[in-house]
Amino acid sequence: MPEFLHKYFILNDQVIPVREFDEELVFGGRSVYDALRLLEGIPLFAGRHYQRTVYTAGAAGLKIWLNKQEVNEKMRQLIRANGITEGNIKLVFNYRDNTGSGNFLAYFVPHHYPDKHDMLYGIDTVFFQGERNNPNAKLIDRMLRESTEQAKSEHSVYEVILVDRHGFITEGSRSNIFFIQGDKILTTPLKDVLPGVTRSCIFEICRNSGIAINEENIHYTNAERFEAVFISGTSPGILPVRKMENYIYPANNILLEKIINEFRKMVSEYLDAHRN
Asked: Which tens digit of pLDDT belongs to each residue from 81-115?
């Protein structure tokens, strides 16, 4: 599957046909990236995504050379050039050396949104032994990405769940993961995972709703003790997990349904506030 979609991409200050897209602009050197969802022509939670990009670049010892307004304008350029109102946009800051500058790219990428069946019954996942070199930094890791995509295809699952060398569950290949136990939610400590934007929304929802949410390490052998499991991310939003390896979970947990409904409300309010 190609890295890009549609007719044009942004390279620094230029709008360029995708036939001229050179993957070395992304995979050569070091690249900090982010992906956000475009809904009704509006980049969802754009401010949160920008702050995450700054944070993850800092975690890798790098700096972002564009401010939030400049990044937003380049996304508007991309949207206008392609005439697209729905999809996923990828933003890449590529560093060829240690000078603190390089190339900026924005382009549409393939996505896999959950369907009604996924939302109603949950998705299937399997464990995958793998770790990110720098969990807090959203750096392009081509080897990990290709191996996890291959595992998804081989097992016919929506997502793979990463397990570190100590046997602890960390996150999905493109998502964060949460566990429900009674009236509380558990998830991997932030220091061990990518700081997902939807993850931050879930923490905000829990704080505002009086739902207990704790960060702790969870060993994969303890997966059976939970009443429900769900993932979060740019494409899935908040999505129930039906199966994780050989463990089966219900998708109709009351606490999970409350969080999903609150997240939908948050998305709706964001879109209403940014339509103009």
From this structure: 999 999 999 999 999 765 556 899 999 999 889 99
Which residue pairs from 116-122 have beta carbons closer than 8 angstroms and sit at least 24 positions apart in sequence? Answer: 118/158, 118/239, 119/239, 119/240, 120/251, 121/240, 121/242, 121/251, 122/230, 122/239, 122/240, 122/241, 122/242, 122/243, 122/249, 122/250, 122/251
Question: Closest Cα partner for 125 from 159, 164, 154?
Answer: 159
User: Is there a single domain that holds both residue 145 and residue 169?
Assistant: yes
Half-sphere exposure of 199 (CA within 13 A, CB side): 22
> Which residues form the domain of 229?
116-271
CATH number, domain with residue 61: 3.30.470.10
Contact 225, 184 (CB under 8 A): no
Q: What pLDDT band is residue 144 in, cutting at 50, 70 and 90?
A: confident
Q: What are phi and psi of 200, to 5 degrees?
A: -65, -35
Lookup result for tokens 């339509």:
275
Dist CA 88 CA 68 (whole Å): 18
Secondary structure letter of residue 131 according to DSSP: -
Which pLDDT score is estimated for 140?
A: 66
Q: Are residues 140 and 102 in the same domain?
A: no
Give the separation between CA 87 and CA 5, rounded to whole angstroms: 10
pTM: 0.91
Does the structure show a pLDDT above 60 at 262? yes
Q: What is the pLDDT of residues 35-64, one digit of tens each?
A: 999 999 999 999 999 999 999 889 888 899
* CA 176 – CA 160 distance, rounded (Å): 11
